[in-house]
């Protein structure tokens, strides 16, 4: 079942309908659904679909030649073009009389083996772009390669593309469309457990409870997800052991660079390089207090929910899991899931606020959202605000509560008090709660007039 990606499909179809030469670059981390998107887009179009493999240039050229011959004659033949240039020239010639989509999936595999491929494509684009109806799509999972060797200023193909699409995992509201049988609460738990990467979502079965899914996916040595983090790192990086140590340190609560370095036993400069690569891969995220740019306050956390859940709960229970004691492992994990979901709920609330903004329904026309933390100069205590966003003279402040108790008046009063650390002419407050609000909180919000109370189930009905 194909879901989501409507904006990306619309972009690709708009390019296709131009009737002229187009060149789109599609990239994103592994398992994010790039090939599925392209397959959905090309399902009713004349397409030559070639997927590169991690082999030498000759093998990839033979495979490419076979794809071209199958498209043009319907017959797989053993003969091969003499070079990628002659193969591509043949395709450009075919596309002079009709619209053809040429997809080169896993392009980095092909380009690494054939060093001159990018320059060859550049040459043929410059020669044929005004006369060809070819729609060329280069797709790749190696984020660094696509950014450095396809999109970057010094890359041979720079300036030739007519569009680029960087695919990210689905957000929470897109994930909800996938799980039609789960309760509202279970949808949030599923998102917290597995995230929004399409291939990981396919591992969740909404015919079963969240508990059973956790046991089947994370607490089962035969599950594909059980080995996924280490397998993904082996595919993406050269020294997976050190990357694994860095992620493990962050998952254990080491959020500052010096803490991560101390935990891993590596120099901070070394850790900085690894963390930068993990950020590129969408596994780790970097944060500073909202509105501040001081590197001194920068912290790091795991961005991808599958990685976050795996590193939080699997390593410490590996011995139990390997002995087939999934029930025992789950009993150890279950009490910690509500606290784990607190950060997940904050992310869901941020996505909800972006949704409101794009729909023209947000009280503040913010340009960005983030957390804020710092010292209250009056009380000398550390304070934190779950979500902040602002425009020139207005700001929103939000608190997110994923608990089984209703959010009370004290939650609102604390948020208002913390907002006094900032000088904005207009302030609006959002309270988000899993189970709603007490009467005292609702009465005070109505009295203030600049407070929006949002219970979790209301977020799904917007």
CATH architecture designation of the largest domain:
Orthogonal Bundle
CATH homologous superfamily heading of the largest domain: Winged helix-like DNA-binding domain superfamily/Winged helix DNA-binding domain
Name the helicity range.
Answer: 40-55%
- Gyration radius over CA: 25 Å
* Coarse structural class: alpha/beta
Counted up, domains total 3
Q: Reading side by side through the largest sheet, how are the strands ordered?
A: 2-3-4-1-5
CATH class of the largest domain: Mainly Alpha
How many E-type strands?
A: 12
Low-confidence stretches: none
Which band does the percent of strand residues land in?
15-25%
Mean pLDDT, nearest integer?
93
In CATH terms, what is the fold-level topology of the largest domain? Answer: Arc Repressor Mutant, subunit A
Distance between the termini: 24 Å
- Outline, from the CA principal axes? globular
What is the makeup of the main sheet? Answer: 5 strands, parallel
Number of H- or I-type helical stretches: 22
Task: Describe the fold and architecture.
The protein has 462 residues and is α/β, with parallel strands linked by helices. The protein folds into three domains: 6-166, P-loop containing nucleotide triphosphate hydrolases (Rossmann fold, 3-Layer(aba) Sandwich), CATH 3.40.50; 172-341, Orthogonal Bundle (Arc Repressor Mutant, subunit A); 362-459, Trna Endonuclease, Chain: A, domain 1. It is 47% helix and 16% strand. It contains 22 helices and twelve strands. It has helices at residues 6-16, 34-42, 57-73, 84-94, 107-113, 117-128, 143-151, 172-178, 184-194, 198-201, 210-217, 228-236, 240-251, 257-264, 268-280, 305-313, 318-322, 326-333, 337-358, 409-419, 439-448, 456-459; strands at residues 22-27, 47-51, 100-105, 134-140, 163-166, 284-287, 299-302, 369-375, 382-390, 394-401, 426-433, 451-455. The strands form three sheets. A five-stranded parallel sheet has the order 2-3-4-1-5. Strand 8 (369-375) and strand 9 (382-390) form a beta hairpin. Helix 4 (84-94) packs parallel to helix 6 and helix 9 (184-194) packs across helix 19 (337-358). The longest helix is centred in the C-terminal third of the chain and has 22 residues, at 337-358. The chain starts with 5 loop residues before the first helix and ends with a helix.
């Amino acid at each position: 079942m194909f879901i989501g990606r409507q904006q990306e499909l619309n972009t690709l179809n708009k390019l296709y309908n131009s009737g002229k030469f187009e060149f789109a670059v599609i990239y994103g981390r592994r398992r994010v659904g790039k090939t599925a998107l392209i397959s959905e887009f090309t399902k009713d179009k004349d397409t030559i679909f070639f997927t590169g493999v991690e082999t030498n240039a000759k093998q990839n050229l033979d495979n490419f030649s076979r794809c071209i011959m199958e498209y043009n004659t319907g017959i797989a033949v053993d003969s091969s073009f003499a070079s990628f240039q002659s193969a591509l020239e043949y395709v450009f010639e075919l596309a002079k009389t009709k619209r053809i989509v040429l997809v080169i999936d896993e392009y980095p595999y092909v380009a690494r083996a054939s060093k001159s491929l990018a320059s060859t494509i550049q040459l043929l684009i410059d020669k044929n772009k005004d006369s060809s109806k070819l729609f060329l799509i280069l797709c790749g999972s190696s984020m660094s390669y696509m950014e450095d060797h396809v999109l970057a200023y010094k890359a041979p193909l720079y300036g030739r593309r007519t569009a680029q699409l960087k695919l990210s995992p689905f957000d929470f509201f897109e994930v909800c469309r996938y799980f039609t049988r789960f309760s509202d609460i279970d949808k949030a738990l599923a998102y917290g457990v597995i995230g929004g990467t399409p291939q990981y979502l396919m591992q969740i079965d909404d015919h079963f409870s969240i508990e059973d899914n956790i046991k089947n996916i994370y607490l089962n040595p035969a599950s594909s997800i059980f080995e996924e983090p280490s397998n993904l790192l082996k595919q993406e990086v050269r020294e997976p052991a050190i990357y694994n140590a860095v992620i493990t340190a962050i998952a254990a609560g080491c959020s500052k660079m010096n803490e991560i370095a101390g935990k891993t036993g590596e120099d901070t400069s070394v850790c900085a390089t690894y963390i930068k690569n993990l950020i590129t891969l969408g596994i780790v995220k970097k944060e500073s207090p909202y509105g501040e740019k001081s590197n001194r306050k920068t912290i790091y956390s795991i961005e991808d929910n599958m990685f976050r859940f795996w590193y939080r709960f699997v390593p410490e229970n590996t011995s139990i899991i390997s002995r087939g004691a999934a029930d025992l492992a789950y009993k150890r994990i279950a009490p910690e899931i509500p606290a784990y979901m607190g950060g997940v709920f904050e992310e869901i609330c941020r996505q909800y606020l972006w949704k409101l903004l794009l729909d023209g329904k947000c009280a503040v026309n913010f340009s960005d959202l983030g957390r804020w933390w710092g010292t209250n100069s009056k009380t000398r205590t550390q304070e934190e605000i779950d979500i902040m966003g602002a425009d020139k003279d207005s700001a929103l402040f939000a608190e997110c509560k994923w608990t089984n108790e209703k959010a009370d008046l004290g939650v609102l009063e604390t948020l208002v008090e913390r907002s006094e650390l900032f000088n904005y002419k207009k302030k609006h407050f959002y309270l988000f709660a899993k189970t709603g609000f007490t009467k005292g909180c609702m009465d005070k919000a109505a009295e203030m007039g600049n407070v929006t109370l949002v219970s979790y189930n209301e977020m799904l009905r917007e």
